[in-house]
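Here is one chain, start to finish.
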Amino acid sequence: MKFIYRISSILLLAAAIAGCCNCRSIQRKTRKPLVGTEWQLIQLGGRTMQPAEEQYTICFMAEENRLTGVGDCNRIMASYRLGEDRALTIENPATTRMLCPDDATERAFVEALSATTHYDMDGPTLMLFSKGDLLAVFRAKPEPAADPVAGTTGEAAADTDIDAVAGTPKESSNGAHSALEVGVEAVEAK
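Its structure:
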């Protein structure tokens, strides 16, 4: 009877390991690099967050080990150090000083960054920890989609000769109206 129990245990263990291999493969394929990826906050201090697209983001920059980001309405700047075993220290975080509607959450966000001692990643998810306690969870923001008209990302599309509001050619750039001005004038005329 013990023999059957051992064989069953070994088979169950082998099946569990084989099942997890596919998960790890997917995690590797969807993993984003820590440095150079824009990360958006989805959980802070155990509380699920659903910030606007431009709020509560961070990006680790390779040059000079800088961290940049945005809280509720303030820009965030800091330096960071990476160490062995996913050690991460975010040093001297500073923010601009605008009065934000959700100032308490922004303060907690900056405090979590400052308290970080290490990180972990799971697919497109970044988790920040302080001595084993989960502080914050981020999701990698998707890359901007290419603009089929301009053949570039959305930001570069603003430089094309197509009026984004009316879908017509813009006037020349020598003092003529921009697409935004044309749209504002159209609204004011109504």
